[in-house]
Amino acid sequence: MAAREWLPSSPSLSSDSAGDRVPVRPLAAISWSGGKDSCAALQRTREAFDVVAMLTMFDEERLRSRSHGLRPEVLTAQAERLGLRQVTGRSSWATYDEAFGTALGELSSAGITHVIFGDILFDEHRRWAEQMCERAGLIAVEPLWGSSTTTLFHEWVASGSEALIVTTRAALLDRRWLGRRLTADLLPRFAELGVDPCGERGEYHTVVTDSPLFRRPLWLRAGDTVQRADCWALDVVPDAAHD
Fold first, then answer.
1. DSSP letters of 55-103?
2. Dihedrals φ, ψ of 207, to 5°?
């Protein structure tokens, strides 16, 4: 059931209170890392789908998200601001596919038919998403796929959305980049350093703190900075003083 085009081709219809036939948007979930790409994918699809849930994978103890190393309370705060139900899985990297498939099954059982992903490049990422969804009877949606990462960076900034850098590849971006907000002036510096505008080769990851879809901004408090293997990481927690 994997779809190559992400727009629904023939939405079903229902009757409103006046008896007119109106389109019913397919129920969807967003594969949510907490970073800008998943948020950008959600922003692109908000008119085409009724997104009701977010799916996030955590480590075995549910202490950190698998992709961006975020605390559960950060993801919960984002879900509340988006008005989405949280669906989570726990896994090691070795058991990731199995746990992700179980979480997809939970979405399918809830009547969800589509799952939105924030993939931009790399065919193997898209194939994996499509195959995993197909096994669960779901359709993978890839609204950012094949887009220019420079264009996506500009669109992100222009949308009024905000994200902070929380991990960096140490060989390219040192610890001084941690906590910086994505702004237009970073783009030429990324080019000088050989960093993809959207960090598509793992140069950096972000946490979203605001979006046109958020009910209110997410204020975060910075904690420790640590180096794990070849990456720098910034710990962040919701700032209750601004909640």
1. EEEE-TTSSSBTTT---HHHHHHHHHHHT-EEEEEE--STTHHHHHHHH
2. -125, 130
The candidate with the shortest Cα–Cα distance to 141, out of 133, 149, 151, is 133
In a domain, 4, yes or no: no
Q: What's the confidence (pLDDT) of residue 65? A: 95
pLDDT of residue 240: 85
The percent of the chain in helix, strand and coil, each rounded to the nearest 5, is 30, 30, 40
What is the model's pTM?
Answer: 0.90
Which residues are paired to 163 by β-bridges? 208
Grade residue 21 by pLDDT with cuts at 50, 70 and 90: low
15 inside domain:
no
Residues 6+ apart with CB under 8 A from 41: 30, 116, 117, 118, 141, 142, 143, 144
Domain that holds residue 167: 24-242
Total tally of structural domains belonging to the chain: 1
Which one-letter DSSP state was computed for residue 12? E
Residue 63 belongs to some domain of the structure: yes
- Rounded CA-CA distance 147/46 in Å is 18
Measured distance CA(177)–CA(175) in Å, rounded: 5
Q: Encode pLDDT of 74-112 as tens digits.
A: 999 999 999 999 999 999 999 999 999 999 999 999 999
* 73 class by beta-carbon count within 10 Å (0-12 exposed, 13-18 middle, 19+ buried): exposed
pLDDT band at 19 (very low <50, low <70, confident <90, very high): low
pLDDT value at residue 16: 58
